[in-house]
Amino acid sequence: MLEQTTADIPRTPKSAPWKVAVANYLKQRTQENNGWLAEQLRMAGPVAVSHYVASPRRQRGPGQKFLRYLTAKIKP
Q1: Taking Cα atoms as reference points, which of 53, 44, 37 lies closest to residue 12?
Q2: According to the model, what pLDDT value does residue 51 have?
Q3: What is the pTM of this model?
Q4: Ramachandran quadrant class, 55 (left: phi over 0; alpha: psi -120 to 50; beta: rest)
Q5: Mean pLDDT, each 10-residue run in order, the chain (76 residues)
Q6: Which of 4, 40, 61, 74 fits a disulfide with 8 by CB distance 3.0 to 4.6 angstroms?
Q7: Which of 29, 38, 35, 33 has its CA nearest to residue 70?
Q8: What residue segments make up the domains of the chain, in order of their start?
Q9: CB count in 10 Å sphere of residue 53
Q10: CA distances from 68 to 11, 36, 45 (A)
């Protein structure tokens, strides 16, 4: 499912579902802030990351599917 690599980061949209899922996963399991996530995933700015990360929790969609996959496959 998540077959993207770091090379895909600059080539994909800022709100790509896989980026949203990765940001959401990291927010849940690390102390990284929105600024760091925005920079690493090239997701606009910290406010945008906050918005993107909140979106899958509020609605169903591709971001939620990727997040469930990450949560199931990567155990802390």
Answers
A1: 44
A2: 87
A3: 0.78
A4: alpha
A5: 86 90 88 95 93 69 77 74
A6: 4
A7: 29
A8: 14-73
A9: 22
A10: 24, 23, 24
